[in-house]
Amino acid sequence: MTFRSLLRWTAPLALAVFALNATAQTTLRIGFQKSASLLTLQKSNGSLEKKLAPLGATVKWVEFPAGPQLLEGLNLGAVDVGFVGEAPPIFAQAAGAKFVYIGFDPAAPEAEAIVVPKGSAIKSVAELKGRKVALNKGSNVHYLLVKALEKNGLKFTDVQAVYLPPADARAAFERGAVDAWVIWDPFLAAVEKQSGARLLQDGRGIVNNYAYYLAERGFAAKHPQLVQALFEDTQAQAVALKANIKAAAAVIAPLQGLEPEVVEKSLQRYEFGVKPLTPAVAAEQQKIADTFHALGLIPKPIRVADALPGSATVAEAAR
Known about the structure:
InterPro entries: ABC_SsuA_sub-bd, Solute-binding_3/MltF_N. This protein has helices at about 5-25, 35-45, 45-50, 65-75, 85-95, 140-150, 165-175, 185-195, 215-220, 225-245, 245-255, 260-270, 280-295, 310-319, and strands at about 25-35, 55-65, 80-85, 100-105, 110-115, 130-135, 160-165, 180-185, 200, 210-215. By secondary structure, the chain is an alpha/beta fold. The protein has a five-stranded mixed sheet, with helices on both faces. A five-stranded mixed sheet has the order 7-6-8-5-9, sandwiched between helices. α6 (about 140-150) links the parallel β6 and β7. Mean pLDDT is about 90; it is low at about 1-25 and about 310-319.
């Protein structure tokens, strides 16, 4: 057989193998919120794409306005991995969503707070009784409001909860349609600087304000190497961000539509660096679930353990 005839015989096979490899390429679809500064930075600098390229994987970033919407996208199969606050996974699990906790960020209690307008006569959380309080339903601030009211001898039903996403809540807050707003950074830092909003109570001494990385159960079981690569890149970018917050804020600010000083302030209130879930952190998440069920905010009790790696529920989904 001549070289030319050999080439004629092998070329179609080579093309077929190439096509098969191209078809088999995996795309990691990440659900994120623009307020998630570290992920916004990763999306901007392309570090994750470079990290996944040797594994034959690409990245697709899917933006959501808040955690509950992101969890809905995860449950519907629109994304494979998402990053949210404490409360959204509780509501999602109670609604039957199928996901698994794969990691968490350290506590950041100062990064969420109850604020009132600059000239408000309200001086304490106790004075919120009977008042209109804006919040994003099912977000991490939902739990902050519940616990802050409880600490001051009030029940959740003692205030008029007005459920609005961040942009609509800020508009309502600034025109005086609500008396207070419970919100997280960087929206918190923005309204403090731009509107002179006064901090009534942040999460210190009340809540942990962890953030969680979640994955669709089947994806987490089938692609552990992609999850590991995501976490390695996230950790590297977290170290770089904390080493030079000012430089990171300059990159992130235009992407979030905020001033660098606002973003810098919000970055200072977060501790970045993903870690595997510990039993202690899972127990704290269970406390939130139990609190929400006792208040009638979720229709049935849930076991956070059912959504942890290695649980029987997750193992069955993987099979």
